[in-house]
Amino acid sequence: MTTPSAASAGANGAPTRRTHARSILLAGLGAFVGLAFVGMLAQETSEPWILGSFGATCVLLFGFPSSPFSQPRNIIGGHVLTSLTGLLCLQLFGPGYVPMAVAAASALMLMMLTRTVHPPAGSNPVIIFAAQPGWSFLALPTMFGAVTLVLIGWVYWAVVKRGSWPHQGR
């Protein structure tokens, strides 16, 4: 989780129970706000803003915001790249467990190659092969949903930690 300030640390520099409880509550609140907002957009627009992997994205974004996997480049890039890979493999090879495995493995390698690794996005090819959506899936829910969560995270952390996210250089 985030490193507590010196004022909230105990004598040995470790977080106090109060600081730890506060961090847990803030992480839960952030995940709630992010997912509730995206869910509200889905309900109000009757469009598919929700992607199953967004729950795990919120674990990183709000629970571990300093992780390299939690940075905007990784969240947006990882989701878009893996969904694009899944859609391409579905289109080229058709449904099946072997093409799905090719898509997931290729997506992992591409995220590593482009330095956009976001572990929750690794499930996007599997989701795509299970749901078999059209190309619009790349825009909504993938890109617009990921961008929305990043924007919510940016505003959330600006209010909660006064601009402590994203972490540059990660």
Q: Characteristics of this structure?
A:
mainly alpha, HPP family protein, 170 residues, membrane, TM_HPP
Class based on secondary structure composition and strand pairing: mainly alpha
**Largest sheet properties:** none
Q: What is the count of helical runs?
A: 6
Mean pLDDT: 91
Q: List how many beta strands DSSP finds.
A: 0
Query: What is the general shape?
Result: globular
Return residue spans where pLDDT drops below 50 for at least 5 consecutive residues: 1-9
- How far the N terminus sits from the C terminus, by CA atoms, comes to 16 Å
Order of helices and strands: HHHHHH
* Overall helicity: 55-70%
What percent of residues are in strands? under 5%
Task: Provide the gyration radius in Å.
Answer: 17 Å
Protein name: HPP family protein
Transmembrane segments: 24-42, 48-64, 76-94, 137-157
Keywords: Membrane, Transmembrane, Transmembrane helix
Organism: Caballeronia hypogeia
Structure description:
- By secondary structure, the chain is mainly α.
- It has one domain.
- It contains 6 helices and no strands.
- It has helices spanning 17-45, 54-63, 72-93, 97-114, 124-131, 139-160.
- Helix 1 (17-45) packs antiparallel against helix 2 and helix 2 packs parallel to helix 6 (139-160).
- The longest helix is centred in the first third of the chain and has 29 residues, at 17-45.
- Mean pLDDT is 91; it is low at 1-9.
Secondary-structure map with pairings?
Layout: H1 17-45, H2 54-63, H3 72-93, H4 97-114, H5 124-131, H6 139-160
Helix pairs in contact: 1-2, 1-6, 2-6, 3-4, 3-5, 3-6, 4-5
Pfam families: TM_HPP (PF04982)
Domain HPP transmembrane region: 18-165
Protein name: HPP family protein
